[in-house]
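Per your request, structure below.
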């Protein structure tokens, strides 16, 4: 069925897990949206590089120089992967959360940040800091309404720097957001845009040049490179004008004692300004390896395969009348391989636990660190749990307080989707 693209080899595909029945089955990871398994290729690249690992930037030895080259080459690979325009920069971070907190820390004082309330908490919360104002926009029910809501908010916003933070694809519904349209509207009204590509980049080509966004953030561990690195890439001006996100070695060009008994510091510009301390070279190298692997496999082929699996998943779930699939924009709206649902008469946490214990399938249940969105989708107003996980179980038959999420990607074989549908 997928002659054009076989699943890419990933780790963990042959791991056997025990079931309550006493049998063992191979683990079916359907939780890619939380963390995707490493591509075998990424693992191999990291293993091949590990013997040559050395400190970067400040070492005179051969392996330090080699590591520095690989680290800086990784930056260029990521820049190519994102189709970054000239003059933009790639800063290596720990994750999307870290990238967005970095951006929040460098915004000019008085910046107004706009975010739809439907965002992941990583896109909702970093802006709640002194010197910034946050405007939360209500959940839109169509892409067009999203653009209209943004335009209305920008038309009535006071003068001053503005930033829209928006996701490329929802971590709850998988729905793809109208990024080019939102960016065009934002720019027309004097706002910049940061794209949270945590869920989009693993599934679709993200071209900063074509989308027009000013910054993009993503995580290695969702892009088949689970080695603790993330990326913030984009325009240099605000990054170079701000105090470093992390102060320390590497961020500073010169440090000297001054006459008042303190020190004066001249900070670096460019990515080093915000990457103080010894960077996660292996993580950056792994991200670059994943970027290369995905580019070589080709997003066209990967997407074609993923959309076939998605169509099968949706058709299978549609045969189960108790299942309600969640979405803001309607069934026909395009999504990536991320889908959340509730099952009438079932507590979502129990349902997910049964998928694991009886079928060896790993999904996620809860509110997915997007409490306002999931509450809107479930039509509820109850207090959410304090963390990203599940609230107290409701009784069978009660309205769901949380949902089940199934998500997959480049390594998913057909059998995982079939097993999941059989189990449901
Ligand atoms: N944004 C979105 C859309 C996400 O799905 C996630 C992770 N679930 C994040 C941001 C945060 O990513 P990380 O945990 O890697 O920082």
């Amino acid at each position: 069925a997928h002659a054009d693209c076989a699943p890419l080899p990933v780790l963990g595909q042959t791991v056997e897990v025990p079931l309550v029945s006493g049998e063992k089955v191979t683990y079916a990871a359907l939780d890619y949206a939380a963390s995707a398994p490493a591509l075998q290729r990424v693992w191999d690249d990291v293993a091949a590089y590990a013997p040559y690992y050395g400190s970067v930037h400040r070492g005179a030895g051969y392996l330090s120089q080699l590591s520095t080259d690989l680290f800086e080459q990784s930056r260029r690979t990521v820049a190519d992967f994102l189709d970054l325009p000239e003059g933009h920069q790639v800063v290596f971070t720990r994750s999307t959360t870290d990238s967005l907190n970095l951006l929040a820390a460098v915004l000019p004082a008085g910046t107004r940040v706009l975010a739809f309330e439907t965002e992941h908490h990583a896109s909702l919360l970093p802006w709640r800091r002194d010197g910034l104002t946050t405007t939360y926009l209500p959940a839109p029910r169509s892409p067009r309404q999203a653009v209209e809501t943004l335009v209305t908010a920008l038309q009535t916003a006071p003068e001053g720097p503005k930033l829209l933070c928006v996701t490329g694809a929802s971590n709850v519904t998988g729905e793809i957001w109208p990024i080019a349209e939102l960016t065009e509207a934002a720019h027309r009204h004097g706002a910049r845009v940061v794209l949270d590509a945590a869920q989009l980049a693993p599934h679709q080509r993200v071209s900063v040049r074509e989308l027009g966004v000013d910054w993009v953030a993503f995580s290695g561990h969702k892009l088949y490179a689970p080695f603790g690195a993330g990326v913030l890439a984009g325009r240099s001006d605000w990054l170079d004008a701000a105090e470093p996100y992390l102060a320390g070695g590497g961020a500073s060009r010169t440090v000297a004692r001054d006459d008042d008994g303190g020190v004066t510091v001249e900070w670096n510009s460019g990515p080093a300004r915000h990457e103080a301390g010894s960077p996660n070279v292996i993580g950056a190298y792994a991200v670059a390896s994943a970027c290369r692997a995905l580019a070589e496999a080709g997003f066209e082929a990967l997407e074609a395969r993923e959309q076939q699996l998605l169509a099968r998943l949706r058709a299978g779930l549609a045969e189960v009348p108790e299942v309600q699939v969640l979405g803001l924009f309607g069934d026909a709206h395009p999504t990536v391989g991320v889908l959340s649902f509730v099952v009438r008469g079932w507590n979502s946490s129990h349902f997910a636990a049964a998928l694991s214990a009886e079928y060896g399938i790993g999904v996620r249940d809860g509110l997915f660190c997007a409490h306002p969105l999931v509450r809107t989708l479930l039509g509820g107003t109850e207090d959410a749990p304090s963390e990203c996980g599940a609230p107290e179980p409701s009784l069978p038959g009660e309205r769901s307080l949380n949902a089940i999420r199934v998500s997959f990607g480049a390594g998913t074989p057909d059998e995982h989707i079939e097993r999941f549908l059989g189990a449901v």
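Residues 33, 95-97, 120, 122-123, 167, 171, 196, 198-199, 219, 221, 369 surround 4'-deoxy-4'-aminopyridoxal-5'-phosphate (CB under 6 Å).

Regards,
D.
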